Amino acid sequence: MKIAHAPSQLERQPRAVAIGAFDGVHLGHRTVIATAIATGLAPTVVTFDPHPRIALGNRVEMLCTLERRLELLAALGVEGTVVASFTDELMHLEPEQFAETWLRALDAQVVVAGHDFRFGRRRTGDLALLERLGFQVLEAPEVEGISSSGIRHCLHDGDVAGAARMLGRPPELDGVVVAGDQRGGTLGFPTANLALDPYLLVPRHGIYAGATLGHRAAISIGTNPHYGGEELRIEPYLLDFEGDLYGERLVVELWERLRDERAFPSEEALVAQIADDVERARAAVRPV
User: CATH homologous superfamily for 148-283?
Assistant: First the structure.
């Protein structure tokens, strides 16, 4: 997939353009993309970074990083994606200006979006306006019960299976391995300490089963209450893995929430519990 930051960076050809934030690339988003692909034109996406609501000063817990969003779009068969910087200038474009600058310039023959899509200054543009401007418009069918807010609600509750049903895949943590407290190694379970983008949603604290790099993992999300911790730590322990992961990006799937995090009466009790978590992670089933 070709990634561009302006329409001029993509080859001009007849395109079916899907527009949206596509946070999480969930099943509803997949329907939009599938509708664009089904036209037979070059399937293309126009998406935004940062998320428009973040640019407007709101707190948004993102479901995936921009890098992961682009990977997921590519996997669906998108031919090119234009990442539009959601600047003050873009925010104040009249809908007609947006259509000329970001759609006509791409030679968009078809524009695909959800029924509630709005664009342009004060969100005054809609699909009907695009039709009046001469674009063929396809409204992607709504997938009932699927929404980014619903996925966020599930993850706040630790409901991994519920989130997976809406995403069409397991929810993920995406970050870079950095130096941590290095207690895991002394306990016999060396973990990777994952630093997340500050805008990414952190699921309900607890111990999870999942996978990364082709290895099952037991993942701790929380503050390590056994050691009186206060800072958030996200620490996957990769089963049957040996190696140095410092500086590596990990995309960690969450398959099942195993338990709450808690303090233990002794370090021996903690080690026994971790061993049990590891065995449960080994037996966990990937959702979806």
Answer: Riboflavin kinase-like (2.40.30.30)
